[in-house]
Amino acid sequence: MNRPTHITAFGAIAAALLILTACSKPADGGPATAASAPSVLTVEVTAPTTLQWPQTIQANGALAAWQEVIVAPETGGLRIAELAVDVGARVRKGHLLARLADESLLNDLHKQQATVAQAQATLDQAVSNVQRAKLAEASGGLSAQTIEQYRITEATSRASLASAKADLDATQLKLRQTRIVAPDDGIVSTRTGVLGNVVSAGTELFRLVRQSRVEWRAEVDARQLSLIKEGQRARVTLPTGQAVDGKVRLVGPVLSTDTGRAIVYVALPTDSAARVGMFATGTVELPATAALTLPQSALVSRDGRDYVYTVDSGGKAHSAVVTVGRRQQQRVEVLGGLPANARVVTGGGAFLSDGAQVTVVAAAASAASR
């Protein structure tokens, strides 16, 4: 069946209009543009900030006593009659730690006192004889030999008295040594004495942490050793997670021939939670240097490398591999890979890809206080 002629003509006119519309140019004479790519994320940006940060050296090491004091009896052959303190006790200089049985020494003391009295009486008699001999010497009643003998007897008696007094002093000293006291302030770290045991002179009974001072003995290599000086600050992290501030007391003068490392002695407060025998990690602070820093949230870690995303003037994100250094208070030092005037995405970089379109809102503050 044939279509009407006017319908065919209308179709031809419509087709011509469509062709003319497709070929037409914009009213302003410019080229036709495609729609802009949609934004995938709204972000804040910041510029790297230069701060003065102290350099730090990481180290590990054990906690040890500043000095240890070994407490032992100075006299031997006596029984331990009393142990006055236990492990952990804080003692002052002169505090009684232990007491040895003194009965035998008291007997010796009485004996020596009697010996001194006897020697004194003998000397008194010898002095009296010499005085009488001097009176008789003028009259010729005594021979010169007899008078000389009296003088020799007096001298011998004086020597005997001095010897007896020395023995008495020695006995009194041993008697005082039965009281074993702390030679300095400190904490009792070990107690090896056993009640009732007969001890020899020099047998260790106690060991003290002198003045209750504990220090961190950090191990460092030769390069690090050359940077550390006495008086520098240090921060030690205990196994409990607690941080303790200290100060470098002494820098070891030699390196171990076995490990090639030296010891840095860091003094810690006496009231800290540090205990002898702990193993701790920590840092030693060196003089401050300039650091180009970013918020730590700007970092994205992928495949073992650190990235940040920068935004160009067109709102496109670009990834950049950076080298990082020190970290402090939620900021990180950028050692390389980033211009100082870059606009860096402060967060959400894990959701971006290279070339992604983003929307930038008010920039984060570029200055950060330490």
Tell me the structural class: alpha+beta
Could you describe the largest sheet, including whether it forms a barrel? Answer: 6 strands, antiparallel, barrel
- Distance from first to last alpha carbon: 91 Å
Low-confidence stretches: 1-35, 364-370
Q: How would you describe the oligomerization state of the chains in this entry?
A: single chain
Describe this structure in words.
- With 370 residues, the protein is of the alpha+beta class.
- 25% of the residues lie in helices and 36% in strands.
- It has 4 helices and 22 strands.
- It has helices at 5-23, 103-139, 144-177, 222-225, and strands spanning 41-43, 45-46, 49-65, 68-71, 78-83, 90-91, 96-100, 179-181, 186-191, 198-199, 206-210, 214-220, 233-237, 243-251, 262-267, 279-295, 300-302, 305-311, 317-328, 331-336, 344-345, 358-360.
- A 6-stranded antiparallel barrel has the order 3-12-15-14-13-16.
- The longest helix is centred in the N-terminal third of the chain and has 37 residues, at 103-139.
- The model is unreliable at 1-35 and 364-370 (pLDDT under 50).
Key attributes of the depicted protein:
six-stranded antiparallel β-barrel; 370 residues; alpha+beta; single chain; rod-shaped; four-stranded antiparallel β-sheet
